[in-house]
Amino acid sequence: MRLNSMPRKPSPPPTVITRRQFAQTAAWASATAALTVVPAAASPILGNHGDNESPLDEAESEARWQAIVHRYGDRLSEEQKKRLRKILAYNEKLLTPIRNYPLNNGDSAATVLKFYEHEAARALRRSAKDQDHDNPKAKE
């Protein structure tokens, strides 16, 4: 005797994406992202940031500005958008010497992070260790 009188519908085949399809989709996505930045690099507004900025720095600050305006544009006034552009250009100006500093993978760090244990924590750890040595059955 059948418990279920209705026939089962076959489940749809799982959507399988091949490596080739994934690579093609990723290539299209990266090309699209690159093309959205190119018009920003050709924008005539970029000349207002200063003479010592490279075109890449200007393009990056413009891309950041466009991303912020795209996300929060409806909440920003024109005055705030102008100020945001100045802040981003100034940040790029400050980042230029940091990015230009020669650094290789094998270079050691300028400073080393050292951890020092507080004296009270050290004393507490010592007393706990002493109690464990005095009472070996406490561990069991």
Q: Can you walk through the features of this model?
A:
By secondary structure, this protein is mainly α. Helices cover 57% and strands 0% of the residues. The two termini are 59 Å apart.
Largest sheet: none
Q: What portion of residues is helical? A: 55-70%
Determine the structural class based on helices, strands and strand pairing: mainly alpha
The chain-level mean pLDDT equals: 76
The unreliable regions are: 38-50
Order of helices and strands: HHHH
Distance between the first and last residues' Cα: 59 Å
Question: Gist?
Answer:
The protein contains four helices and no strands.
Write the layout of secondary structure elements.
Elements: H1 19-41, H2 55-72, H3 78-100, H4 119-134
Helix pairs in contact: 1-2, 2-3
What descriptors fit this protein?
mainly alpha, single chain, 0% strand, 140 residues
